[in-house]
Amino acid sequence: MSDKKESKEEKKPIVIKNATDLQRLKLEKLMKNPDKPAVIPEPPRQKTLAPPPDFVRNVMGSSAGAGSGEFHVYRHLRRKEYARQKFIQEKSEKEKLDDEYHRKIEENRKAAEEKTAKKRAKRLKKKQKAKSKMKKPKTGTEQSSQSESDKNSDESEEENNENISSDNDKS
Q: Which segments carry the region annotation Disordered (predicted)?
């Protein structure tokens, strides 16, 4: 009895409402039998030109009185030549777009590096300025307080130098 209920539930039609339902259905179908190999289609091959013929048999002459069959041969050769020229143009256009794309990517990368370097220099300059403010001796009457602050600043300088060297190692 329970087997019949399960089979009825499985045979219940599945309504696909959106793309995720379709994807889920495909995945479930693949996972029902994991031993079965999944078919991955080959990518489309690049179109290439046919090599030119070694020997042209039907050479068009300029003599009058060509037969009625010659027109079809001429039309076929003309169509073939136009297709070849179109292919060459499309190929050159594609190469031009690829070159432009790579050039643009390179420009963007260089601009980003320059911007990063500028910001890095600004950060380091700000850090040095803050360090020099801490380093300045305070004008006061007590020499002992200055010597203590000098010791503290020396210790903090060593810590900052270690931090800076570790920051440089990371970048």
A: 30-69, 85-171
